[in-house]
Design goal:
about 120 residues, nine-stranded mixed β-sheet, alpha+beta, about 25% helix
């Protein structure tokens, strides 16, 4: 009888302290969500088929099955493949890890490739 009450109190305490964005139904705060790179524009630039990436405030992901598993980012100057794009919850800025495992911050990526950044998934 006491155990459910303890779990209820712990649950309330944990979620009561979580930082949330105002006016969004209590979703935990994250990074600004990127724009999608259209499948047509992606295919025209990269010469292959592209599918939409899943864009959230915590990550940019591609399907885990099938041929379209590489995350491609396009800036105003160039495009590049990444293996992971994740939000640093502390700084509210994005971190990028390329296919050679080199890490870059959002500011570094934007300085090299230009802003705004857009994403799609590519199979090549």
């Amino acid at each position: 009888m006491l155990l459910p009450l303890v779990f209820a109190l712990l649950h309330s305490a944990a979620f009561g302290c979580m930082k949330v964005q105002p006016g969004n139904g209590g979703i935990p705060a994250g990074c600004p969500v990127f724009d999608a790179w259209s499948n047509e524009a992606c295919a025209a630039l990269l010469g292959g088929q592209c599918v939409a990436a899943t864009l959230t405030s915590t990550s940019v992901t591609c399907p885990t099955t099938g041929p379209y598993r590489k995350i491609y980012m396009k800036g105003s100057r160039d495009a590049k493949a990444y293996q992971s794009v994740e939000c640093d919850q502390r700084t509210k800025r994005w971190n990028f890890v390329d296919l050679a495992y080199h890490s870059m911050t959002q500011a570094e990526v934007e300085a090299v490739y230009g802003a705004p950044l857009m994403f799609a998934c590519v199979g090549r």
